[in-house]
Design goal:
Elements lengths: L7 H30 L10 H30 L7 H33 L5 H13 L4 H8 L3 H8 L6
Helix pairs in contact: 1-3, 1-4, 2-3, 3-4
Length: 164
């Protein structure tokens, strides 16, 4: 049986590593597509797939942003009233990972669209998601605000030895 308990410091360190990995995944794939794969001299703008992707990529980016925010809020609303800090922090971690995945998916799709069509304009959508992910960095302050923690729970988070 695995021990999932960690200190507050370890908890936020793990969240930061997950967050960084998600951002780096998009950035590194974007760099590979930009420098090694795509030939921007001959963009495909006339094929049927290029015509579809012009509308599909922005729609998926918008859907990913909306879905990530809605699902994040719905999952957190289920535990905000709870008195169990460990439960709140577990659900918070799960919610953040789902949020990041729902943002990362459309960004990777936009980069794949560049690969398919050689249309560099799709890079804007992937860049938008990377910037959005960067602003959604997990911090103690953001967890306090997202979970509407009480003074006692905030004091527990300030103690690095607290197990969450």
């Amino acid at each position: 049986m695995e021990n999932n308990q960690s200190s507050v410091k370890g908890y936020f360190k793990i969240l930061s590593v997950i967050h960084l990995a998600m951002i780096l995944g998009v950035v590194l794939f974007g760099l590979v597509v930009f420098f090694f794969v795509a030939d921007f001299q001959q963009p495909d703008t006339r094929s049927e797939i290029a015509g579809i992707l012009v509308y599909l990529v922005p729609a998926l980016v918008l859907a990913g942003i909306l879905a990530s925010n809605i699902i994040f809020r719905v999952k957190l609303n289920g535990v905000i009233e709870s008195d169990d800090l460990k439960l709140k922090m577990t659900v918070y971690r799960e919610s953040l990972i789902i949020r990041y995945a729902l943002l990362e998916g459309p960004a990777l799709f936009a980069l794949a669209a560049i690969f398919i069509t050689n249309n560099i304009n799709f890079l804007v959508y992937a860049g938008l998601i990377v910037v959005l992910l960067a602003f959604k960095r997990p911090t103690k302050k953001s967890s306090i605000a997202d979970l509407a923690l009480s003074q006692q729970e905030m004091a527990s988070l300030d103690d690095p030895a607290t197990v969450v």
